């Protein structure tokens, strides 16, 4: 972020946040929880965190607060400084409602008190219909920006975007890009057309973008640009956000999107093939690194005496990123040492750079076993399920393969330059190291985090899981040898018949040709 002299950064990050009131959308999401925990723990003198939380599954926001703070991610804070939880103020609302669904009294309080806004709310599902994706990602952001316009003492507005919002660009620079369409026009359109028409025109609107998530994120950045000169905004674009690297809880992860879902599916033996280029870098960024970047970027952006929008790509350098193939081999080795308690089959999948090789593997290693097992379940009076599971897996893999068969260069000069503006204390407290990650240790912690925090399988279950894995391996080998043996027997016994049939067919064709 150019134009800032070091003398303007003499105040440290915790000191700058001291006394500030912060409004956060998307606080119940994966990144949101890590952001809330980090602010409470390492900026202890903040005045108040306003969390926008909606009613969900019959639970009021106040009830969700208790469930929210029971998460393991807050264990360290609970032990070290439990009084910090008193600084939380729940704001009942929803980004899908006008004015964010906030009451008049709460709105007046926010207008008077808020200094910093972190807008993290988003629908990250790739397969969302266009209407829902626009309403959540684009209209929701519009409402947050409209709220920010009325805040009396706003220092900075942080909009969390994604590195893949302009994925038709091979190189993503840290600046604005043209919006795919007029955002306001698209908002009016999705509210005037029925679902059938929207579904028909969606491919034309996407115009090469892989899904509605990428499209609406690009559209949203276009909307944010209309506030250039009006608000002190920074747009942060994380790449693929994965488990905690260092603190507060190494390996902690929530949700099954992206790499986490792939890991679980592969470890359970459900996913046995994936279309992917093993030599391409896996653009992962640990969630604690991403959150540190957001917090520091807000502090840095607030020093600028301008309302010009800034952009920062929150990504690691390719020189330090493992490839998809390296991740697979490391992950398989770690999972074999620490397998899951429940697997449908022996986890022995692989990635295929050739699409047709992948399709062949899907047919023989996904669908064929699924149909055979479901037929067996029907015969014994049980409900079949595996074909249905594999159809969902195939849909998910088709969405993800766009990202695993392409390569991008995400410029990250601003992220790499940020540590130079920090004091030694803040460099340690808000670690932005992007070139010294021990990926072997990180993947081990991530896999153990999936076991413990996501699947609730304690380390004590590993010996039993290893025994189950050995049995699955033996069963897998027996069935594979039996399959190839059956194929050999079939060819040995019927090869002559098959060849005679082929020869007869060709003779018939030749005879027909001569007669004509």
TrEMBL record:
Give the family this protein belongs to, as stated in its UniProt record: Belongs to the fatty acyl-CoA reductase family.
Protein name listed in UniProt:
Fatty acyl-CoA reductase
Instruction: Kindly list the GO CC terms recorded for this protein.
Output: membrane; peroxisome
Q: What function does the entry list?
A: Catalyzes the reduction of fatty acyl-CoA to fatty alcohols.
Q: Which Pfam families match?
A: NAD_binding_4, Sterile
Q: Which GO terms describe its biological process?
A: long-chain fatty-acyl-CoA metabolic process
Task: Spell out the InterPro entries in the cross-references.
Answer: FAR, FAR_C, FAR_NAD-bd, NAD(P)-bd_dom_sf
Annotated membrane topology is:
Multi-pass membrane protein
């Amino acid at each position: 972020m150019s134009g800032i002299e070091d003398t303007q950064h003499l105040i440290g990050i915790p000191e700058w946040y001291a006394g500030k009131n912060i409004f956060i959308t998307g606080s119940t999401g994966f990144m949101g929880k890590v952001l809330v925990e980090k602010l409470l723990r390492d900026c202890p003198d903040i005045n108040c965190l306003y969390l926008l939380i909606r009613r969900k599954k019959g639970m009021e926001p106040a009830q969700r607060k208790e469930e929210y703070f029971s998460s393991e991610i807050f264990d360290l804070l609970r032990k070290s400084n439990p009084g910090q939880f008193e600084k939380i103020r729940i704001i009942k609302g929803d980004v899908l409602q006008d004015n964010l669904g906030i009451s008049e009294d709460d709105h007046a309080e926010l207008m008077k008190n808020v200094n910093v806004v972190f807008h993290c709310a988003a629908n990250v599902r790739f397969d969302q219909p266009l209407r829902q994706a626009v309403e959540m990602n684009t209209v929701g952001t519009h409402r947050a920006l409209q709220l920010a316009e009325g805040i009396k003492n706003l220092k900075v507005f942080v909009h969390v975007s994604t590195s893949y919002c302009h994925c038709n660009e091979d190189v993503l620079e840290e600046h604005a890009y043209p919006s795919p369409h007029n955002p306001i026009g698209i908002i009016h359109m999705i509210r005037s057309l029925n679902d059938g028409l929207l579904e028909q025109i969606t491919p034309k609107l996407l115009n090469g973008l892989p899904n509605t998530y990428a499209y609406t994120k690009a559209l949203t950045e276009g909307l944010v640009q209309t506030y250039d000169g009006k608000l002190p905004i920074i747009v942060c674009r994380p790449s693929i956000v994965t488990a905690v690297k260092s603190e507060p809880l190494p390996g902690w992860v929530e949700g099954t999107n992206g790499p986490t879902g792939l890991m679980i599916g592969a470890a359970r033996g459900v996913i046995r093939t994936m279309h992917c280029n093993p030599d391409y870098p896996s653009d992962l960024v640990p969630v604690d690194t991403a959150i540190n970047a957001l917090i520091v970027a807000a502090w840095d952006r607030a020093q600028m005496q301008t309302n010009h929008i800034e952009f920062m790509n929150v990504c690691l350098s390719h020189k330090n990123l493992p490839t998809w193939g390296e991740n697979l081999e490391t992950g398989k080795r770690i999972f074999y040492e620490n397998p899951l308690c429940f697997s449908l089959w022996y986890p022995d999948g692989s990635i295929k750079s050739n699409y047709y090789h992948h399709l062949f593997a899907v047919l023989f290693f996904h669908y064929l076993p699924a149909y055979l097992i479901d037929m067996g379940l029907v015969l014994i009076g049980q409900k079949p399920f595996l074909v249905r599971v594999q159809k969902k897996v195939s849909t998910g893999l088709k969405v993800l393969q766009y990202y695993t068969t392409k390569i991008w260069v995400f410029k990250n000069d601003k992220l790499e330059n940020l540590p130079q503006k920090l004091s030694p204390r803040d460099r340690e407290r808000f670690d932005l190291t992007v070139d010294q990650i021990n990926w072997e240790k990180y993947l081990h912690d991530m896999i153990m985090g999936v076991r413990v925090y996501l699947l609730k399988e304690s380390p004590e279950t590993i010996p039993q899981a290893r025994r189950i894995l050995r049995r699955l391996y033996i069963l897998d080998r027996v069935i594979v040898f039996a399959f190839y043996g059956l194929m050999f027997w079939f060819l040995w016994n019927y090869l002559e018949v098959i060849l005679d049939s082929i020869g007869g067919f060709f003779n018939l064709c030749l005879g027909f040709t001569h007669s004509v």
